[in-house]
Prior knowledge:
Elements: E1 4-20, E2 23-40, E3 43-51, H1 61-76, H2 81-87, H3 92-108, E4 119-120, E5 123-125, H4 130-138, E6 145-149, H5 155-165, E7 170-174, H6 181-193, E8 198-200, E9 220-222, H7 232-235, E10 241-244, H8 246-249, H9 252-264, E11 268-271, H10 278-288, E12 293-294, E13 311-312, E14 317-319
Parallel strand pairs: 5-6, 6-7, 7-8, 8-9, 9-10, 10-11, 11-12
Antiparallel strand pairs: 1-2, 2-3, 4-14, 13-14
Helix pairs in contact: 1-3, 4-5, 9-10
Amino acid sequence: MLRSVDIRVECWPLRAPFRIARGARTDIAVAVVTIGEGSVAGRGVVGRGEGTPSARYGETPESVRMQIEAAIPALQAGCDRAALRTLMPPGSARNAIDAALWDLEARQAACIAPALPPLVSAQTVSIDRPGAMAQAARRLARAQLVKVKLDAADPEACLRAVRCSLPDTTLIVDANEAWTMPLLVAMQPVLAELGIALLEQPLPAGQDGALADFTAQVPICADESCHVAADIPRLRGLYRFVNIKLDKTGGLTEALALYDAARAAGLGVMVGCMLATSLGIAPALRIAARADFVDVDGPWWLLEDRSGGLRVLDDGVVVPPQPGFWGGIA
Length: 330
């Protein structure tokens, strides 16, 4: 029996504008893949997966749809997750398919999704004027971990405003490639003074070599520079952490390989996400349980999430999706 493959592109509005160094958005588009095969106890079995196209990596909803459509013949013929890694490049299209295959396999085996240990996710203060960022930070007063998005426009004032509002909270900073080397050098004493725990991707991807002779006062994490396990050898010695996102790796299968490669190289691990619904985040929870930092608050930014999805409480504790949501039966 041939598998059935369905593709949908969905739009989900955000509860507030989300601003990073590359721009702002008020909604997200996600690609949802559903793969059906055979039957269990006389019922059809389907697996679901979601990917979020990223303009940063040249993706659009339509280009992702086309990538998935091109893979349908192979999927119908029984392509598995291992073959998928050679069939398609890393990215959100492969992520959606990979997640659907994980879900399908679990349901075919009638697996009960394993319980997750307690997770604490970062909650995000997006870019705005210093006063507005301070106000946004105050709304996160109960959070245990807060990520502060910064660009090159007066990052010190913005960061000090947030720290003033959250004097005791663990803060990480994400510059999303917006800084230059002189700005990175100038911000070092500020980051150290304010007790920043981690700095994500200060320089544009491709300029990683500038960090070779740089002594950072705060650990630096590769995000846009790190996609797959094969990236680790060139990043070792330049960064102390890597950020694993399934839409970059092309799914949980490669993310697990990247995790193992990072740990073998002595690197710390953050598990992050694009803005996504809980369907896009659920696979990442399987690896987030082993990470040093977790940033999976993507669904929190949605005006409304999928029924049965995860919840991020005021203190950042992640309440997993309901049983049967993804990766196993109820």
